[in-house]
Design a protein that fits this description.
Layout lengths: L5 E6 L1 E2 L11 E2 L3 H17 L3 E10 L7 H14 E13 L6 H9 L4 E7 L3 H7 L5 H14 L3 E8 L6 H13 L4 E6 L7 H4 L9 H17 L3 E4 L2 E3 L6 H7 L5 E3 L4 E3 L3 E5 L3 H6 L5 E6 L2 H12 L6 E2 H8 L3 H4 L1 H9 L3 E4 L2 E4 L1 H5 L1 H10 L3
Parallel strand pairs: 1-4, 1-11, 2-3, 4-5, 5-6, 6-7, 7-8
Antiparallel strand pairs: 8-10, 9-10, 12-13, 13-14, 15-17, 16-17
Helix pairs in contact: 1-2, 3-5, 6-8
The protein binds iron/sulfur cluster.
Iron/sulfur cluster binds next to loops.
């Protein structure tokens, strides 16, 4: 038996490669390689310690490229090893270019409860600049099909800071998306990852500057609040009862299983990260780890600070003291003073948390904390 009650499953297939992406995924994978991957994945699932699951998350890559039969095969492997609890959250990431209404209905019938749609933008020009395989209309139709299929929770992913994007074009996407009433929104600023086509062309592309990007974040925060969404994590907004239970497991440093290419699991003390090389994973899906790291106590403390300060509810000062043996607010008192004075950091009911503006600047605060940590 394991103490982890969450399982991440990585599906590394994509229709085509987006220009900003450095995830472990492959476009145009052959049917035989795809079959080999699914066999390896099921073998890895079979090797996990048995237990109960509260959440399962199909991420990628593009899990919505799975056929109904392939998804069923993976879910069968999961239920041979685990008892999936009756009210488990079972999420699947969906690229609008890959999801017909029939497929979404079939996924819902197989037990997927939560669909996360990679909308990113409702401007075709912005989607083209990102090299996404779908159009704005594909995203609108996928959203309608997801609702018609009856998913308990529908989430949409949005991006800001895109080539050619302005606060006005971002707001137009945001307003239209909010008019659909998704249960959950994830919104990320574009990160230029080395080795991607967008990174290689960065000097020839007009990106919004920092002020414009912050203006987009401000609109996001204002309009989601007006729409009744809670800003429960730095990049995530949810209606009552629709926070992503699976992702909360990561953010609260709870243990979880993870299977598939590049997937990273945590048992409460050790993180194991699989290889990103497809051939290595296929050769040994149970043992092909690139990294196995026992988390030292000081790293565990910093991880908790980093993850908790990105949550809307912040960090529990008494819980932190109990787990790590020192008083966070006291140790970093001097460092936190200017942040408190500017209103970025607040303390209430024994919890320390960041304001919306503070969340936007959290990387700078965390760098200061890391630099001051022995
Ligand atoms: S669909 Fe997702 S995983 Fe695939 S290339 Fe695009 S961003 Fe990367």
């Amino acid at each position: 038996m394991s103490n982890a009650s969450s399982l991440y499953i990585h599906i590394p297939f994509c229709l085509s490669r987006c220009r900003y992406c450095d995830f472990a995924s492959h476009a145009g994978i052959s049917p035989s390689l795809r079959e080999a991957y699914l066999s390896a994945l099921c073998r890895e699932i079979d090797s996990l310690p048995s237990g109960e699951l509260e959440t399962v998350y199909f991420g990628g890559g593009t899990p919505s490229l799975l056929t109904e039969g392939e998804l069923l095969r993976i879910l069968d492997a999961v239920s041979r090893r685990f008892r999936v609890k009756p009210h488990a959250e079972i999420s699947l990431e969906c690229n609008p270019a890959t999801a017909s209404p029939e497929k979404l209905s079939a996924f819902r019938s197989l037990g997927i409860t939560r669909l996360s749609i990679g909308v990113q933008s409702l401007s075709d020009g912005e989607l083209r600049a990102l090299g996404r395989a779908h159009t704005a209309d594909d995203a609108r139709q996928t959203y309608r099909a997801a609702r018609a299929a009856g998913f308990e929770s529908v989430s949409c992913d949005l991006m800001y800071g895109l080539p050619g994007q302005t606060p006005t074009s971002f707001e137009s996407t945001l307003k239209e998306l909010l008019s659909f009433s998704p249960d959950h929104l994830s919104a990320y600023g574009l990160i230029l990852e080395e080795g991607t086509p967008l990174y290689a062309e960065r000097d020839r592309i007009a990106f919004p500057d920092e002020d414009l990007e912050y203006a987009m974040y401000e609109r996001l925060v204002e309009q989601t609040a007006q729409g009744g969404y809670s800003h429960y994590e730095i990049s995530n907004y949810a209606r009552e009862g629709h926070g992503c239970r699976h992702n909360l497991v990561y953010w609260e440093r709870l243990p979880y299983h993870a299977v598939g290419l590049s997937a990273s699991s945590f048992d409460g003390a050790v993180r194991r990260t699989h290889t990103r090389e497809l051939s290595c994973y296929l050769a040994d899906p149970v043992g092909s780890f690139d990294e196995i790291t026992a988390i030292a106590p000081s790293d565990a403390a910093f991880e908790e600070i980093m993850l908790s300060l990105r949550l809307g509810k912040g960090l529990s000062l008494s819980g932190f003291l109990e787990r790590h043996g020192f008083d966070f607010a006291e140790r970093y008192r001097e460092l936190l003073l200017p942040w408190r004075r500017r209103g970025y950091v607040r303390e209430e009911d024994g919890r320390l948390f960041l304001s919306d503006a503070g969340l936007y600047l959290s990387s700078a605060l965390l760098s200061e904390i890391l630099a001051a940590t022995p």
